[in-house]
């Protein structure tokens, strides 16, 4: 007798569960038939409620194109060379976002990214170098500070030429 009532309760519970599942499924299917709507507020300056698909995407301003140049070690030079002439003839200012590279044309712009913190800076090549070890670029003090290389003095960076 006891087993029979347990079976009946289990069947009743399963039936109720199935009925609830069907009701919820039907409700979800009906909800999907309606478009997504964004309500943009109330008031004089607000916009009427409209489907998301009707909203035109905002056009972004074109960004400069970048060509990856690889990675390597970077160092920086600070105030000890302030006032000296650079390879392009200007006077070095450690507070400008400039850099030295062995082969890039003077005046080129390069995005330098520190992969340890994902900070990047765009520098203008105005000098030749670095002539120490296997470094690929020498940054000004300001550029090194922007990407967090001041404390360590050198660090691994990724370079991308901006065209």
UniProtKB/TrEMBL annotation:
<keyword id="KW-0961">Cell wall biogenesis/degradation</keyword>
<feature type="signal peptide">
    <location>
        <begin position="1"/>
        <end position="25"/>
    </location>
</feature>
<dbReference type="GO" id="GO:0071555">
    <property type="term" value="P:cell wall organization"/>
</dbReference>
<dbReference type="Pfam" id="PF03330">
    <property type="entry name" value="DPBB_1"/>
</dbReference>
<feature type="domain" description="RlpA-like protein double-psi beta-barrel">
    <location>
        <begin position="71"/>
        <end position="158"/>
    </location>
</feature>
<dbReference type="InterPro" id="IPR012997">
    <property type="entry name" value="RplA"/>
</dbReference>
<dbReference type="InterPro" id="IPR036908">
    <property type="entry name" value="RlpA-like_sf"/>
</dbReference>
<dbReference type="InterPro" id="IPR009009">
    <property type="entry name" value="RlpA-like_DPBB"/>
</dbReference>
<dbReference type="GO" id="GO:0008932">
    <property type="term" value="F:lytic endotransglycosylase activity"/>
</dbReference>
<keyword id="KW-0456">Lyase</keyword>
<dbReference type="InterPro" id="IPR034718">
    <property type="entry name" value="RlpA"/>
</dbReference>
<comment type="function">
    <text>Lytic transglycosylase with a strong preference for naked glycan strands that lack stem peptides.</text>
</comment>
<comment type="similarity">
    <text>Belongs to the RlpA family.</text>
</comment>
<protein>
    <recommendedName>
        <fullName>Endolytic peptidoglycan transglycosylase RlpA</fullName>
        <ecNumber>4.2.2.-</ecNumber>
    </recommendedName>
</protein>
<dbReference type="GO" id="GO:0000270">
    <property type="term" value="P:peptidoglycan metabolic process"/>
</dbReference>
<keyword id="KW-0732">Signal</keyword>
């Amino acid at each position: 007798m006891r087993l029979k009532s347990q079976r009946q309760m289990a069947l009743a519970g399963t039936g109720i569960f199935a009925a609830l599942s069907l009701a919820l499924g039907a409700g979800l299917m009906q909800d999907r038939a309606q478009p997504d709507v964004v309500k943009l507020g109330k008031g004089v300056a607000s916009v009427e409620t409209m489907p998301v698909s009707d909203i035109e995407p905002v056009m972004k301003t074109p960004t400069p194109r970048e060509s990856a140049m690889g990675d390597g070690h970077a160092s920086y030079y600070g105030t000890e060379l302030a006032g000296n002439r650079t390879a392009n003839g200007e006077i070095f200012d450690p507070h400008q976002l400039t850099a030295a590279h062995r082969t890039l044309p003077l005046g080129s712009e390069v995005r330098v990214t520190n992969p340890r913190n994902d900070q990047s800076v765009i520098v203008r090549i105005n000098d030749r170098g670095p002539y120490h070890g296997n470094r690929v670029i020498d940054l000004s003090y300001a550029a090194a500070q922007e990407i967090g290389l001041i404390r360590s003095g050198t660090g691994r960076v990724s370079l991308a030429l901006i065209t």
